[in-house]
Structure formats: C-alpha cells, structure tokens
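pipeline stage [seq->struct] | target=Cyclophilin-like domain-containing protein | organism=Bacillus taeanensis | residues=126
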Amino acid sequence: MPNNHVEATRVKLIFNNEEVTVKLDDHSASRDFLTLLPLTLTLEDYSNTEKISDLPRKLSTIDAPSGIKPSVGDFTYYSPWGNLAIFYKNFGYAHGLIKLGHIESGIEKLTSMTGNFKVTIEKVTE
C-alpha cells in the first residue's frame, strides 16, 4: 500500500545554477502539489515580498486552514488565485494562503534574483 504522507519530504528549486531546498508540510495541499512534479515555472516578484507563479491547476484545499501569516522562507499556495507564493519577507495574515512547507536552505539565492526567471521544482530523492 503506498504511503500518501509527505512527512520529511523535500523538494528542490533549481534556477540560475543554484538549488533551494524546501521541507514540505503533511496535508492535502502539499500532497496534491507533489503530483505536479517535476514542474517548470516562471517566477516573478510580487510587492517586493514574495516570488509568485501560476500553477497548472488549482490544488486541493480540503482541511486547509482559512489563512496564515507568512514568514520569511514560507513556501505557500494562494488558493484564490491558484498560484505558488514563496515569501522572502514577513507579511501580514492573508485569507486563502496555505503553507505548503518552508525553505530549509538557500533563501538568499531566491531573494537575490531579479526580474522573471525560470525555476524547476523536483522532489528530492533520498
């Protein structure tokens, strides 16, 4: 029987010859996100606070909290727009924002990127 849990599951963001590692939380939205991988997206800066990109489809939000107050390094899904949002600055509470995980290493690499850039997201295999 397959294990549907993402406990200790990590993904890596690959861009500009750099890698950023994200540890995923274990809930329906993060499990659904994993089904999209591998995935190549174009990230753009939003409000000098986060890097965002549309996802190919909306994620499951079953049992998701109504929103969160994101911190630096939070890897999130904004359900009203159906987009990925990776925070490099703290931000106030946002209704519909679901934390998928948190960046373990490399946030400074992501923060230093300017303009739109391509990123490939892959599951880390152990």
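stage status: PASS
auto-comment: The chain has a mean pLDDT of 93. Residues 51 and 118 are 11 Å apart (CA to CA).
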